[in-house]
Amino acid sequence: MSTSTELNTITSSLGDIAARITALVEHEGPSLDNDVYSELVAAERTIGALLRRLNRAARRV
Question: Above 90 in pLDDT, residue 1?
């Protein structure tokens, strides 16, 4: 598998995970424990940063 294909696959998978976490934050947020909500928001931000970095790397390959 080429590097470009692998990066695209990873980016796609991570994008799916990001969407699932965002859905949890948006739909379940009010009913979640504050600590759990905070951790999910932090994870959402971290994955967003990872996606941006992976997209930059993919453009350079």
Answer: no
Pairwise CA distance, residues 3 & 13, whole Å: 15
**C-alpha distances in Å from residue 61, one per residue of 8, 44, 49:** 11, 26, 19
Tokens of 57: 């790397």
d(CA 21, CA 4): 26
pTM: 0.84
Amino acid in the structure at residue 36 = V
Tell me the one-letter amino acid at 60. Answer: R
Average pLDDT of the segment spanning 2-20: 95
Q: Which residues contact 10 (CB under 8 A, 6 or more apart)?
A: 54
Hey, what are 29's tokens?
A: 């947020």
